[in-house]
Amino acid sequence: MAESKKAGKSGTTDSQAATRTQSTPEEAVGTLITAIIEGDTKQACLVMGPSATGSAPATADPESACESGSPGSKQVKTITDRLRTTFTPKQAHGHPTVEVDQAPVKGGKAKVPADRITVNGQSLDEVVLSNSTGLKPGEVNIEFEATQTGDRWYVTDMHMNIG
């Protein structure tokens, strides 16, 4: 995995998304954001785990859940299609550079707010605002939750409160 040169950052993504280990919550969130921007439904599906319930970790097998045409794959495609334009910076070309600030981990879970994620040098909050009509700073509240399952991390929840 390519490491960011910025202090306090980890989870920089590159074009080798499929080979990443998802060994940190930042890597899982960065992989998801990159997959959404690139329209890579398969990769987005593989990094998204089912929402964990209570204190139980997410346990589903992402490979089988992400088979082409499966309900999970169709659901992720809907999500990626809807969010792709929203999460893509204006004037973006080629593979995005996504960096995720290190997130505190508690009980095998980590929460990463959008203002702690940068896409091509802009916070994800700023990108969402620039792609919206009528939203003002402070009206975007997006947060990703990552959950550890074994030695891998999956994005298990996304909260979006816009407006």
Describe, in plain words, how this protein is organized in 3D.
The chain is an alpha+beta fold and 163 residues long. Helix content is 30%, strand content 24%. A four-stranded antiparallel beta sheet has the order 1-2-5-6. Strands 3-4-7-8 form a four-stranded antiparallel beta sheet, with helices on one face. Helix 1 (25-38) crosses helix 4 (71-87) and helix 2 crosses helix 4 (71-87). The protein is globular, with a radius of gyration of 15 Å. It starts with 8 loop residues before the first strand and ends with a strand.
What's the gyration radius in Å?
Answer: 15 Å
- The number of helical segments is 5
- Helical proportion? 25-40%
> Which sequence of strands runs across the widest sheet?
1-2-5-6
Structural class: alpha+beta
Query: Mind summarizing the main beta sheet?
Result: 4 strands, antiparallel
Shape: globular
- The stretches of 5 or more residues where confidence is low (pLDDT under 50) are 1-8, 13-19
Mean pLDDT level: 82
Helix and strand pattern: EHHHHEEEEEHEE
Total beta strands: 8
Strand content range: 15-25%
End-to-end Cα distance, whole Å, is 35 Å
